[in-house]
Amino acid sequence: MLELNFHPFPKIITPRLVLRRLLKKDADALFEIRNNVEAMRYVDRDPMKTLAEAKKLINTIQNNEFENNAILWVIALKEQPEKMIGTIGFFNIVKPNYRAEIGYILHPDCWNKGIMHEAIQPVLHYGFEGMKLHSIEAHINPANAASEHVLLKNGFVKEGYFKECFYYNGRFLDTVVYSLLKK
Ligand SMILES: CC(C)(COP(=O)(O)OP(=O)(O)OC[C@H]1O[C@@H](n2cnc3c(N)ncnc32)[C@H](O)[C@@H]1OP(=O)(O)O)[C@@H](O)C(=O)NCCC(=O)NCCS
């Protein structure tokens, strides 16, 4: 069985980015991202309407991290490490199978600069080497070309296409599942 320990928090530094722990004071920035209709388009969840929702999500994430059940990094630029521009993390971790789902989001102001490509590489490395995962999956809306691009560029393989498996906003949506195995 996979045993996880996110303490101390595994902060990651890349050429342009700092991937750090989520703090209570990130609530405004988290709300700004999760309230953004463009950013939420293919996440297939309602954009947040209140700051209280962001605070509640931070609580949930911090509890999950404390209990070693999930981990999320704040993505920030090195020159402004306090200012969250996005998040990336592992959740739905199935410990008996050494498998986890990866999820990420970036503020639209920062899209198409290679930022998620830069963030995902050390996070995948941590997933396989630090957490000892055997496989990582990603679930995406088939129309989410940018997310698909990031996954393919990082070696993920399309493994399944699930028709109308996700109910959101009065419609049944398709989901594509990508996965990456430990090399
Ligand atoms: C998916 C997301 C994280 C990508 O972040 P990003 O930092 O812009 O990604 P990158 O710049 O590293 O790479 C994006 C790639 O997709 C390509 N791309 C972007 N939009 C595209 C589109 N509509 N069609 C095809 N390719 C597209 C870019 O050209 C780039 O390719 P390149 O690396 O060959 O130049 C960002 O778009 C986002 O936050 N989307 C909203 C949240 C979301 O959908 N999360 C995923 C849920 S599973």
Q: Would you mind describing this structure in some detail?
A:
- By secondary structure, the chain is of the alpha+beta class.
- The protein has one domain: Gcn5-related N-acetyltransferase (GNAT) (Aminopeptidase).
- Helices cover 29% and strands 34% of the residues.
- It contains 5 helices and 8 strands.
- The protein has an 8-stranded mixed β-sheet, with helices on both faces.
- The structure holds coenzyme A (COA).
Descriptive terms for the model:
single chain; 183 residues; alpha+beta; Aminopeptidase; 8-stranded mixed sheet; 8 strands; binds coenzyme A
CATH class category: Alpha Beta
Biggest β-sheet strands, sense, barrel: 8 strands, mixed
Bin the strand percentage.
25-35%
How many individual β-strands? 8
Question: How many helices in DSSP terms?
Answer: 5
How are strands sequenced across the largest beta sheet? Answer: 1-2-3-4-5-6-8-7
Give the end-to-end Cα distance, rounded to a whole number of Å. 19 Å
Could you please say which CATH topology applies here?
Aminopeptidase
Bound molecules: coenzyme A
Judged by helices, strands and strand pairing, the structural class is alpha+beta
List the domain count as a whole number. 1
